[in-house]
Amino acid sequence: MKDNNTEAHIEDTEKGALQHADVIASFSPSEQKKLIRRIDARLVITLGCLYCVSLLDRTNLGAASVAGMQGDLNMNASNNGYSITSLLFFITYTIFQIPATVIIRKVGPRLFIASIVLVWGAVMISFGFVPNWQTMAGLRIILGALEAGMYPGSVYLLSTWYPRYELQKRNATFYLIGSTASGFGGILAYGLMQMDGIAGKAGWEWIFIIEGLLTCVLGIGSYIFLVDFPEQSPKSWKFLNESEASFVIARIENDRADASVEPFSIGKYLANGKDSKVWAYAALYMLTTTNSYSIAYFLPIILQKSMHFSVAKAQCLVAPPYVAAAIVMYVQAVYSDKWRLRGPVVAGNALMGLLGLGLLGYLEHPAPRYFGVFLATIAANANCPALVSWQSNNIRGQWKRAFTSATLIGGGSIGGIIGTTVFRAQDAPNYRPGLLCAILANALVVIIVGAMTLKFNRANKRVASGGKPIEGHIGFKYTY
Hints:
CATH class: Mainly Alpha
CATH architecture: Up-down Bundle
Helix content: over 70%
Number of domains: 1
Order of helices and strands: HHHHHHHHHHHHHHHHHHHHH
Radius of gyration: 23 Å
Number of strands: 0
Distance between the termini: 34 Å
Number of helices: 21
Largest sheet: none
CATH superfamily: MFS general substrate transporter like domains
């Protein structure tokens, strides 16, 4: 009976594949490219712009710090006000990840994402009016809860629109729009600092006010341009007609057969946590963001205090490493999709990070240390879309995909907690404990990637020899 059921399932799968192929073939290659470009413009570009302000708003403490915020708010080594304010964001950011991915599926991404962006923009404006660092710390808690839905929601939304081996280019584009633009946040902050004294506000206060206004504008605009899930798209401002939506869904079904949404069950949703690879990906992202958040929050301070650059140079020298990271990130994404390769790219980036942090932490001359900044920034930022794509490639099912997106980004927020606490004020100007922690994180990435690659290779060989299907779907194989 078991064999008959398996044969019937294979037959149904083959029939479904033929039907999906017919739908895909009904669009000429030029029509397909035109439609996909239209999806990219509405989805990837819009989400990238929102991710840009998300990164700006969560990491502009570093720019505000060198603009005088710590002195004005009495943040010092005795109270660790800066580290506490940085850290508290990530507590609520972590807690609200999983609920956010359930809500976005129920409410729809367009309404949900636009709403939280608008509200957190208002919170960011209020940062420019705080009387003390304790008030700012409380607002950071609220900001973390609001931003919790943005990144995992975006990752999940992108994964529902694209086949597995077209995804990393989109994740990289989404991420590089955000990271490159936020890399210029130091230059923007330096410009806003020149408003010092206008309306009796300090320059660092204007950083929060103007960037908060920008966030509110983009939040309103995103409701117009953002799109919902593929099966909802004919109803979403008539973005796609029925045949175009069927084409998108057919591509997903042909690739991994999980375009349909199964009924929600809290028990089944949480049971996805029994899969060890879910937590392995979360651990990898945690280790990666330990590096990326450390760089985002403390690079301007290190450039100023440890490498003795002026405030203006410290703000502006943040940008070039992020530009380099964007270029490397996208080139890697193109070839990773082409070669269907993920793990070795992640491990290679981590090794690059080891070298960069070694140069930054243990040399004296500013030139090689700044080159180390390039390597460390490239490694940490390039691995973010690579890991998001690798995770999406090896997960099936809408709710499991939502759960894994939440745990992955939740792991990233824990990395943010680590990154903001290991760089302590009393360790200035060299911050050796923090740099050692970041070096250890990269080494662990290499080890975990090696273990996962061996696990996936064994599973693929088992399937090839007629063993138990992967992710409950015959013909599905892991990407490694």
